[in-house]
Specification:
Number of strands: 11
Structural class: alpha+beta
Order of helices and strands: HHHEEHEEHHHEHEEHEEHEE
Largest sheet: 5 strands, mixed
Strand content: 5-15%
Strand order of the largest sheet: 6-8-9-11-10
Helix content: 55-70%
Radius of gyration: 55 Å
């Protein structure tokens, strides 16, 4: 089991197999060749060069006074017996007669000088092929005949087997190396395939954002990694479910709090309105105005919390329609005009005569603009400026103020829920907004994605 569950041990086994198979191959091949050597009883008739010379000279002497036909017939008989040999003879006039085989490369006519040179070049122990030249008959005027045997044919049975043995050993080594490389390739190919499967599982999450678990077929190192991967997915799934439950509880709590706080706020606002009809000192009136302002802020905060909860759960009403954007912005700002005028804001408004249309929910769009106007009214009073422009050519809505900027300090600065609502609503309507903010003010652009 330890061997099966360890990639290192498996590869060491492959290496051990490759090391052991070489001497086993040597032993097996040696046994085969030794058996072939001892069972081969037929002697090699080409092995002894001296015997070949003796035989050839005796044959040449026996052909003394023989006719051309007789010489040709005898040489054919010798050729049938010595199939590896090449045989030809030259008559007393220097003409090449019988050639066995016929494609031997020898001249048709032999001069005395060429004959002497031929004999010199084909003498010696290392010359290949082994050549024997014998004069026909006992005189020197009947011509000569030549026997040629390849050196490879003259090897003894043992030498021939030894050459084939060396070649077989070399093939065995190459075969073992090839088998080792192939098995190693298969081994690492399977490892790579399993790793790629794990990588693919990690890089292809499901709709929940968490990858699927994978099957574990082996218990080796990669298998243990797969087990750890599955355990991690299990823990992530548990965390996701817990987080989802907590998110639902949080949203339910916000919705319940928003609903429960509305009733006491309405009651407080009603009593504050009644107190305004009573005779109060100037200080009392200031305190009452402050209470009324804070109640309004708190009411708006509760409304934002409820809207944010509905938006994040997909329960906020959404009814898109083709909307005249210039007209919508005009109407929206007109409702805020008295508020900014009463607060002493300088207002700069540019609305073109031409218009453009977006597929949006008018109520959501008015809510987005109201949030921006409300932020300017609360946080940019020091600059006392608001600019609203519409670029019909670029289809952009531009809102600008001279406040301290979104990163600046403000007495009524909140948690930014209003801007989060803006982002969610614009995203649903396939719109986006960009800001340029600093100490000199903020510019907001609303445009299509």
């Amino acid at each position: 089991m330890k061997l099966k569950n360890s990639l290192l041990n498996q590869y060491l086994l492959i290496i051990l197999f490759a090391i052991m198979i070489v001497p086993i191959s040597f032993l097996f091949i040696s046994m085969l060749f030794m058996n072939a050597y001892f069972t081969n009883e037929e002697p090699n008739k080409y092995q002894n060069g001296t015997d070949l010379e003796t035989m050839w000279h005796e044959e040449a002497r026996s052909l003394a006074g023989a006719s051309d036909i007789q010489i040709n017939e005898r040489l054919r008989e010798i050729k049938n017996e010595y199939t590896e040999a090449s045989i030809f003879w030259v008559d007393e006039t220097g003409q090449t007669r019988e050639r066995l085989p016929e494609n031997i490369s020898v001249p048709a006519t032999w001069s005395q000088a060429f004959t002497i040179d031929y004999m010199k070049k084909n003498r010696g122990l290392e010359v290949d092929p082994f050549t024997v030249v014998a004069l026909i008959g006992t005189k020197k005027d009947e011509g000569f005949m030549v026997l040629q045997v390849p050196r490879s044919a003259m090897l003894s049975t043992g030498q021939s087997l030894q050459e084939r043995y060396s070649y077989a050993i070399m093939l065995a080594v190459v075969a073992v190396l090839a088998i080792f490389i192939f098995i190693s390739w298969i081994f690492f190919y399977k490892i790579r395939k399993r790793l790629l499967r794990l990588q693919q599982a990690m890089s292809n999450p499901t709709d929940s954002g968490i990858p699927d678990s994978i099957s574990v077929d082996k218990r080796d190192e990669i298998g243990q990694l797969e087990v750890s991967f599955n355990e991690m997915i299990h823990q992530l799934e548990i965390s996701r479910i817990r987080e989802k439950e907590e998110e639902m509880l949080r949203r339910q709590l916000i919705a319940n709090l928003s609903h429960d706080l509305r009733t006491p706020l309405t009651t407080i606002r009603g009593h504050a309105f009644s107190l305004k009809k009573e005779e109060l000192s100037n200080k009392g009136k200031e305190s009452l105005d402050l209470i009324d302002n804070k109640i309004g802020y708190l009411g708006q905060l509760i409304e934002n919390l409820l809207s944010y909860t509905l938006l994040t759960t997909g329960k906020y009403p959404y009814y898109p329609e083709r909307t005249d954007m210039v007209r919508l912005v005009k109407t929206s700002f007109a409702s805020w005009y008295p508020v900014f005028e009463g607060a002493g804001f300088q207002m700069h408004v540019e609305f073109p005569e031409e218009t453009f249309y977006w597929e949006v929910d008018p109520q959501r769009m008015e809510r987005v603009l109201d949030n921006f106007y409300q932020n300017i009214y609360r946080h940019a009073r020091k600059g006392a400026y608001i600019g609203v422009q519409i670029d019909a050519h670029l289809q952009q809505i531009i809102i600008e103020d001279h406040g301290p900027g979104m990163r600046g300090e403000s007495i009524e600065k909140g948690a930014g829920i209003g801007l989060s609502i803006v982002s969610l609503m614009l995203k649903d309507m396939k719109l986006k907004w960009e800001t340029e903010t600093g100490e000199q003010g903020t510019m907001i652009r609303i445009m299509c994605k």
